[in-house]
Amino acid sequence: MRVLVTGASGFIGSAVVPELLDAGHDVVGLARSDAAAEALALAGADVHRGNLEDLDSLRSGAAAADGVIHLAYVHDFSKFEDNARIDLRAIEALAAALEGSGRPLVIASGTLGLAKGSVATEQDPGETGGVGGARRLSEHRLLELAGTGVRTASVRLAPTVHGEGDHGFVPMLVNIAREKRVSGYVGDGSSRWPAVHRLDAARLFRLAAESAPAGTVLHGVADEGVPVRAIAEVIGRHLDVPVVAVAGADAPAHFGFLAALLAADAPASSALTRQRLGWEPRQPGLVADLEEGHYFEAVPLGS
Ligand SMILES: NC(=O)c1ccc[n+]([C@@H]2O[C@H](COP(=O)([O-])OP(=O)(O)OC[C@H]3O[C@@H](n4cnc5c(N)ncnc54)[C@H](OP(=O)(O)O)[C@@H]3O)[C@@H](O)[C@H]2O)c1
User: Fold this and answer.
1) What is the DSSP string of 14-53?
2) Are 124 and 115 in contact (CB under 8 A)?
3) C-alpha to C-alpha distance for 103 and 1, rounded to whole angstroms
4) How confident is the model at residue 131 (pLDDT cuts 50, 70, 90)?
């Protein structure tokens, strides 16, 4: 298959590209800069120049491909709703180019905000209200578009996709612990955070593009829920700083926007995904990955 990958130069995309190539597919990466184009060429992918807001570039890229994996996203948390709208329009443009072809369109979504008070499953539709639900609209629209002859699938990723090169929530926690000289968790630290290794996530995207039926929801989740206290403990040990409870009222000042995420118990299951696609995580879990030490190498404490 010749697969167009948007976000191919990103943290997860740069694992999806070799995953597809190794399985014998051809890859065309969407690139919006010379740097991204060079990185893609080095990785063995062809390059399609374009941008999420240049819908013609998305349509022409998708029309020339046998399938699309859509990973590009504007990660500016101050413009959450605008970015969700850009994503929705991009998905509609990609789907329009594939209409009636039965070709796959696999998108990245997330498990955050799904089930409240229980373990989220692939069958939870998720809410579209409020700022947090804005991105869920993209998934709901994608699933509707299964009716237009596109083999649509949504891979809901755990909020922590970890591994070498992670620039998400866990490195932010490490940095906060460095700055504050304590590794904190909110409340009693029992809130659970799901996680998946980027290489396992990459394999799931490939499997979805190869064989997920139209309208499938999948969960890229390996650890169903790691207690945030366990994450704080590994960080504290590696940075050699005390591990402390931070009261809910003090959490926003300590953790910034991460406070709400750390306080939310948000476990998620991938049982149906494993059954449907035979996907099994093979990489270390989040705590084991943190124990390997690469999250702590960049800047020595105190520098
Ligand atoms: N990483 C996680 O922990 C995590 C968790 C849950 C969900 N996700 C989702 O998984 C997907 C991939 O995440 P990631 O961590 O790999 O993201 P990332 O490392 O931030 O990469 C983002 C990618 O999107 C591209 N991009 C950004 N704005 C663009 C635009 N306007 N036009 C074209 N391309 C644009 C970037 O291109 P440049 O190289 O040119 O910047 C880059 O390739 C995203 O949808 C993300 O929200 C990630």
Assistant:
1) HHHHHHHHHTT-EEEEEESSHHHHHHHHHHT-EEEE--TT
2) yes
3) 10
4) low
Q: Check residue 132 and give its pLDDT.
A: 67
The average pLDDT across 257-261 equals: 91
The SS3 assignment for 282 reads coil
Cα distances (Å, whole numbers) of residue 68 to 7, 72, 161, 183: 11, 12, 21, 40
Question: In sequence order, what are the residues at sequence separation of 6 or more whose Cβ sits closer than 8 angstroms to the Cβ of residue 205?
Answer: 12, 16, 19, 69, 71, 106, 108, 155, 220
**The token pair that represents 180 in the structure block:** 């504050």
pLDDT band at residue 133 under the 50/70/90 scheme: confident
d(CA 61, CA 80): 26
Answer yes or no: are the C-beta atoms of 127 and 113 closer than 8 Å: yes
Q: How far is the CA of 61 from the centre of ligand 1 (A)?
A: 18
Q: What is the C-alpha separation between 143 and 276, in angstroms, rounded?
A: 17
Mutation pick for ligand 1 pocket among 4, 11, 114, 162 (CB with most ligand atoms within 8 Å) = 11
Round to whole Å and give the CA distance between 44 and 64. Answer: 18
Asked if the model's pLDDT at residue 301 lies above 50, the reply is: no
Q: What angle do CA 199, 201, 207 make, to 5 degrees?
A: 105
Per-residue pLDDT tens digits for 178-204: 999 999 999 999 999 999 999 999 999
What three-state secondary structure class fits 201?
helix
CA of 55 relative to ligand 1 center, distance in Å:
17
